[in-house]
Amino acid sequence: MTEPVKVALLGCGTVGSEVTRMLLDDPGELAARVGAPVELAGIAVRRPDKHPELPQHLITSDATALIDSDVDIVVELIGGIDPVRGWLLSALRKGKSVVTGNKALLSEHASELAEAADESGADLYYEAAVAGAIPLLRPVRESLAGDRITRVMGIVNGTTNFILSAMDSTGAGYAETLDEATRLGYAEADPTADVDGYDAASKAAIIASLAFHSRVTAADVHREGIAGISSSDITAAKSLGRTVKLLSICERVTEEDGSESVSARVHPVMIPKSHQLAGVGGAFNAVYVEAEAAGQLMFYGQGAGGAPTASAVLGDLVSAARNKVAGGRGPRESAHAALPVRPMGQTPTRYHVSLDVADKPGVLAQVAQVFAAHGVSISTVRQRDRRSTASLVVVTHQAPDAALRSTVDEIDKLDVVREVISVMRVEGEAE
Amino acid sequence: MTEPVKVALLGCGTVGSEVTRMLLDDPGELAARVGAPVELAGIAVRRPDKHPELPQHLITSDATALIDSDVDIVVELIGGIDPVRGWLLSALRKGKSVVTGNKALLSEHASELAEAADESGADLYYEAAVAGAIPLLRPVRESLAGDRITRVMGIVNGTTNFILSAMDSTGAGYAETLDEATRLGYAEADPTADVDGYDAASKAAIIASLAFHSRVTAADVHREGIAGISSSDITAAKSLGRTVKLLSICERVTEEDGSESVSARVHPVMIPKSHQLAGVGGAFNAVYVEAEAAGQLMFYGQGAGGAPTASAVLGDLVSAARNKVAGGRGPRESAHAALPVRPMGQTPTRYHVSLDVADKPGVLAQVAQVFAAHGVSISTVRQRDRRSTASLVVVTHQAPDAALRSTVDEIDKLDVVREVISVMRVEGEAE
């Protein structure tokens, strides 16, 4: 009989309780996949008395003692940076593999954790940290390891996608829709992490690090949330055959001098209704990956929720356990390139600008002159679009974001411009 | 300096030449991912004089000698069963890892190859065998290893998808569209393997084996191709808001006695235009995976072509090379369940039947009586649909395929039925 692989679980909320259920439900099935029994050795929770549903002999409030006991793998589902960071570093340094879904921790301290894992030969897996049940990190890290990923773009935050989908279909404003999302449980009581883009930025940092074999932290990611999106923005998007999504965009870019850098950003984007990401509704996630040889790939599925996220945790747990049984470890991360991060101002983007302008001749000439003065080339102009309140709608070609930003600032000051109704970046061709 | 990992390449056609290019182009990048240099030690081709573009010192016509030299990994891109089967078994038995895209071989001899790999501790990877560049097998095998996959359904043959997409958009017949596909290079001179569903059936066998941890061979897969699809079928589908796709469908089914079995089949299916698979056009592939905890996932990308397929080969090669460097091996297959294969006749499906019937009272009653006599429940009936030539269109609820088949046979014999215009299985709800 092979020795069991012993697992410590830290945290037992929505995802943790699903993981517990899956570990206890069908141990024979898991053992067959791993090649040895998988034993849940203990569950550390802050308030043991709050968990009457769990097997009481497994519960402890002493996470440190549980980690230091003879467990082989630590599964962390508490979240946040402290005290989790110290616990996981300690586990990794002792050669215990770690499976975690902690995006905040990974987007800030991945280097330190990866180094600790490398030194002791332990595994560090975190598929659950990005896009819930969707197998994304493993394909990026392993399946595409021989290819060259150039771009990753996706919807990785379900809360904001739910809100934007609802605004698009009901025409309601942001505040009202957020209230509804909170009532339905799609948004947390304090929605800041989601609606201000912190969650999506953490995920972008994790994706960019793996995709480009470099180290990108959350602080490197340009971040704009959805709190500024108005129903005018949604209407403007609709009048162009587009919809608004909060996208995480990670790109590998070649600078003029031939050197490489990384761009990572999170902001609302108008995309054509015909774009595959436009059809991703509600709390679903979808991620496009572009690689030189593979071309365009898409991954789609549930980005959150207890059972879907637990599926990702269990996949990692099986891998870590198999490696323990085989006496090896999985592929380490390959963050060998220290690529600089291109600032948002230098990142080429395209803008959509809807303006309410004075009804007299020469207005377009004045507005166009401002674009030209900033070196921004205009793609399309529509005047007096009956489907919106705007009297002038401009979509640009690509230009550095800073140039676009200052163009809009200057246009806003023109006497002939009554109001800047909507400004938003656009992706994708069709209109 | 770490010892290089030596690679033998067998075959150098469309995919092999891309693999060669990627191996030779940026050795530093690959070495960084693997942790050691990756050295292309030799390329075995049948006719060395036909490859002036390759580095001549690498070329050999003696595959056996190349495999027997001091190479660590054998990449096989020749295809077919013999002599490849013997070569790969010999390599695996000597502890050399194998990376292959050979679906015909794997769908018939996977057990034997996996056993040889297990015995010597070598890796056997074959991501390129199914759905080209799309990372599908690794997610199924590893990311979902702790979950329970219940169903995999997808478009895994680009040639038939191109033909069906073209028939749908042009209204042209099958023979004419096949000619066009051949002219454009989307179909081979002998299109049998694609249009008769052999290729899709091999892939279904590989998918089902990995997804259900059982052993399913190509012979276990019920197979119907697209050669029988007429423009009447396409028209009938359109009149129901549907389109026709050749799908590979693998299911884990629970029998009435509680035992489990596997169903694997390839056949044309009418799916709603709103279904995500309906939008997959041209030579693209897309695969849905349903798992108990993860829910519904979708993977989308290029299913064939030199560079995309080479991307999948390189990903496997990097994994195998990393394992060599680390002294371990990747997760073995877990074909521990020997689930029986449910025959097609017992598999529940839904049928669409378009009939040209006599224009007199009581016809529907007669037809409905035949369905009832076979225990088949009708979902919808439409009479005298102006959008098609049919005068009676029936869509059933689920029933065993054999019952549906014999219902159609009996209906065809009814005096009041002038012609059975179209019979096809349907998937998905909306109409």
Automatic annotation (TrEMBL), chains A, B:
One of its GO terms (biological process) is methionine biosynthetic process. Keywords: Amino-acid biosynthesis, Methionine biosynthesis, NADP, Oxidoreductase, Sodium, Threonine biosynthesis. L-homoserine binds at residue 188. Pfam families: ACT, Homoserine_dh, NAD_binding_3. NADPH binds at residue 103. Its EC number is 1.1.1.3. Signal peptide: none annotated. PROSITE patterns: ACT, HOMOSER_DHGENASE. It catalyses: L-homoserine + NADP(+) = L-aspartate 4-semialdehyde + NADPH + H(+); L-homoserine + NAD(+) = L-aspartate 4-semialdehyde + NADH + H(+). It comes from the Bacteria. The active site is at residue 203. GO terms for molecular function: homoserine dehydrogenase activity; NADP binding. InterPro entries: ACT-like_dom_sf (IPR045865), ACT_dom (IPR002912), Asp/hSer_DH_NAD-bd (IPR005106), HDH (IPR016204), HDH_cat (IPR001342), HDH_CS (IPR019811), NAD(P)-bd_dom_sf (IPR036291). NADP(+) binds at residues 10-17. Its cofactor is a metal cation. Catalyzes the conversion of L-aspartate-beta-semialdehyde (L-Asa) to L-homoserine (L-Hse), the third step in the biosynthesis of threonine and methionine from aspartate. Belongs to the homoserine dehydrogenase family. This is Homoserine dehydrogenase. It comes from Prauserella isguenensis. The lineage of its organism: Bacteria, Bacillati, Actinomycetota, Actinomycetes, Pseudonocardiales.
